[in-house]
Amino acid sequence: MAPALQAELLTVVLAHAVPAEPGARPWLVEGLWSRQGVGLIGGAPKCGKTWLALDLAVSVASGTPALGRFGVADPGAVLFYGAEDAPAALRARIEAIARARGIALAGLDVGLILCPSLRLDTERDRARLEATVQRHRPRLVVLDPLVRLHRIDENSAGDMSALLAELRLLQRNYGLALILVHHLRKQGGPADGRALRGSGDLHAWGDSNLFLRRRERQLILSAEHRSAPAPPPAVLELAGEPAPHLRVVPTDTLPEPTTTALADRILAALEAAAAPLGRDALRQITRTRNATLGEALARLRAERRIERRDGGFALRPMIPVPTSMLTPERNGE
Description:
single chain, 8 helices
């Protein structure tokens, strides 16, 4: 009988013996993106995904608050690849965001990767991207959008898992954060990872994910994180002064909503949230008085459209009606 192979042991270290990282901060952008985290910005077409990605890029490069609210804890250089926008168009948007922040474009360390095609499903282009990262040592890499970066089947878990594993390896080897811009599957349904187009591996891959959804002419931003609680959803607007830029809508600029509009805002906020929302979070999102909000919540609970859970309120799940309980229509009834 042939001798058994001597297998090589895997390294095991007790948790207390792993060196701690002194002074490490959990956030790259407070509440929005984890330090050295990978993930996606998801949203429907024309809902501001590239504006949001560029806002984060300018924020990280300059150390100024993203969207005028979320502080940057770990600023540094940024590399941005925009497959669908001409370099001049990207420059114009970056310059506008910088002008709105009161900073000069010339001193902004945002590098645009200029190449007609970047195929991350090919070894050659992955090697080119890694060599570029090694040269510039960015704090953040943004690739916009994912659909232009490969020719594999996005619904194939095996293919997508292999591509995402290569990007995760890049992130770990160089200690950077990485953002992919991606589309949601459809406009209806929840605004979270379940709505991302393609394989579920995309959702599972993200340490931080941001989602944009339009509801009642409002642009709602929600976030989710692997290792931290998410902030309440925020209402965004594309402001025009002093230059075009995304920002969180100030709480004192939205009128008190009507009863119907308030109910719609509550339902949209709960739909967009990754977890139940408390009254304070709903007041911030809907910009309404506590008494008015309480009346709307009581009405929605009475209508069995929402329910109270640990941590706040959530949409009530739909219970399918058994086929045996359905009766055919008769005489147009």
